[in-house]
Each structure stands twice: as C-alpha cells, then as structure tokens.
Amino acid sequence: MIKKDESVEITWKNGETTLLPNLWLRDNCACDLCRNTQTTEKLFQLAQVDVNLIPETVDLIEDELHLLWPDGHRSVYDGSAIRALTIPQTTHLQLWSSEFRPQQFDYGKFIHNDSIAVDAIENFLNTGTILLTNAPTKECLENLAPMLGPLRETVFGRIHNVVVDSTGYNVASTNLELPPHTDLPSYSWPPSVQALHMLVNETEHGESIIVDGFAVATQFRNAHPNWFDRLCYTPVPFRIFDDNNETFATQPIIQLDTGGQIAGVRYSNQTMQPMNPVRTGINEFYSAYHEFSARITSDKSKAIFRLEGGQILLVAGHRVLHARKEFAANAKRHLQDAYFEHDNIRNHLTVIQRRLRKIGNTSLQ
Questions:
Q1: 233 within 8 A of 248, measured Cβ to Cβ
Q2: What is the DSSP string of 164-206?
Q3: Taking 90 as the threshold, does the pLDDT of residue 252 lie above it?
Q4: What is the count of structural domains for the chain?
Q5: What is the CATH number of the domain that holds 295?
Q6: Whether residue 248 sits in one domain with residue 135
Q7: 139 belongs to a structural domain
Q8: Whole domain around residue 79: which residue ranges?
Q9: Contact of 55 with 27, CB cutoff 8 Å
Q10: Do 309 and 199 fall into the same domain?
Q11: For the whole prediction, is pTM greater than 0.85?
C-alpha cells in the first residue's frame, strides 16, 4: 500500500494493483453514518471534507481495506466489490437483418407466468422486439401495464386507433405504404417502447416491416465512420402536429452513450423538417443521410411478416424502426398502439427475478 497526495495504491492478495482516489474512497464509505443501509442512498456530502483529503492510515486486512481519516472517521471497503467496479460493463445485443423474426410468446402466459415473462423481457431487451400472441381484445394493451409499467401518454392520446381515415393527420391513417420510422421524433424524449396491437387484419397485403436501427447504424459506422459521426452530431428538426397539438424537437439522428456506443436512432423521413441550407457541413450531412437512408430502406435490412389479428408487436422505440406495406382499403384493418418506457420494463424484469430467487431460496429451506 502506497499513500499518495491524491490516491492510495493497493496491491491485493491476488497480486492485482488498484489506484484509488482519496476523494473517491471517502465519497463511497458504506457505513451507516455515510449511507442509508436500507435504501443505499448516500448521506455523506463530499463538500464536508477538504478537497486535498489524505487518509491517516491505510490497512489491508484479508480482502478488506481499512482507512482512518483525519477527522477520526473509519471506513471499511470490500476488495472484491471495488475490483468488480473496475471491470468494464459491456452489453452484447443481438443485431439482426431481413431473415430475423421476433420470438413469439403467449400473451396470457406472459402476463401470469413469471418465468415466461423473464424469458420474454430478456429477449426483448436483447433483440429490441417480441411478438405476443392470443391477445384478441382492446383491453389487452391496458392490461400490459403491470408487466411493462404505466402507459406513456402523449398529446395525441393514450391509445391510438390506426384505421383508414380520410380526415387523419398522417400517412398511418391511409392505406398507403408507411416507410421505416421511429415514432414521435418530435419529442425531446420519444417513447422508448411501442406496442402495436393488431385487433383485426382482413386486408390483402399490408405486411408489417421492422428494421434493426442498431444493426444498420453499426454497419454504417464501420463503412463510413466520418459520415456516421456527422449523423451523431448534426441536430435535425422534427415536427408532428394536428389541429390541436404541436410537437417539435431538434436532435441528431444517431445518439451515443457516454462510452461511445450506439444508444438510439431517431429516424422519420416523413416528419423531418427543412434544415438551415447554409449550415457548415450541410453537404456532408446530406451525403451521410442519403447513405444511411439507403441502408434503412434496403430489403436487406427489412424483416417482413404479416401481423395477424390478436397479435401485439413490441418494439424498442429508440432502436427498432417499424413500417408497413400498402394494403387494399376494401377490407377491415384495425391497429391500436400505445407507448411504454424502457426503464420500467427493466425494473419489472429485476423485480420478477428477485421474486423468483426468493421463491427458489424458500423451496431449498
């Protein structure tokens, strides 16, 4: 162990060495004076100590790090927990193209069987989409709330009925082809999960189409890294409105997380608004947008299938683009869609897994 002005260098029993900042150590003391043991919320305020804080003593006992601070406070840290924090957290998603089909799960079993719900949600988080079957009634979307969290309402309504309507405010209300897009890019935070519930589908054609935006963006990044960067950093305006509502947002088409990984795709050619034509880099942007659009709309990217009555297609709204082919307007086609949030689905997965572990532990006693 070596104390330095700003950090402590620890050599663990396994020979690994970790350099731990003094302020990080003080900020992460887990004693009941510094952190609520029930909620793990931090009680300690870092500004209470000197910015040049140095521990008085540092001791490694077995795999525990013991520190004494100048004010007499003592902190104990678990070595394995510290080392676990130093391991990069990576997520390996299943990317897909035209040959992919969403895995199917029975709606009733998804609602009532925890093990099946875990399988379904994990599959959804991995691929960005699943298909729920045997969901015949209008109430089925509302009844998803206990599993997916509360519905995300927008100014355009809670549950949207998509039928052919000559007075409708967008292409979805016609029988025309609807190109691949993500919904509501005109919101600063578009809904991150969408449920598309086909109640009745008696029409010819009108096949459903989904595109893995993450897969397309990854291929685009590998082929054209400079153009990829242009789509990550150029703000694009989107607008959706009707007689009573107006939504507008300006954001890049591709979003990255803090680690530089693709975190979102915001793509809607039909709701994209004119950009400043003399903006610096506008030519490069349009070259990039042209190539990205060609990849999005390529048959190689489109998974095409028929969404039948009683089926719910669940898609990750910041990843999976959806579309449909043109259909004959002489028969009934009624789709409902509603929005949920990704964080709430992750929460429910954690809650179910915790419940199943508790049941498993009880059965072993």
A1: no
A2: --TT-SSGGGSSS-EEEE-S-TTSSS--SEEEEEEEEE-SSB-
A3: yes
A4: 2
A5: 3.60.130.10
A6: yes
A7: yes
A8: 2-85
A9: no
A10: yes
A11: yes
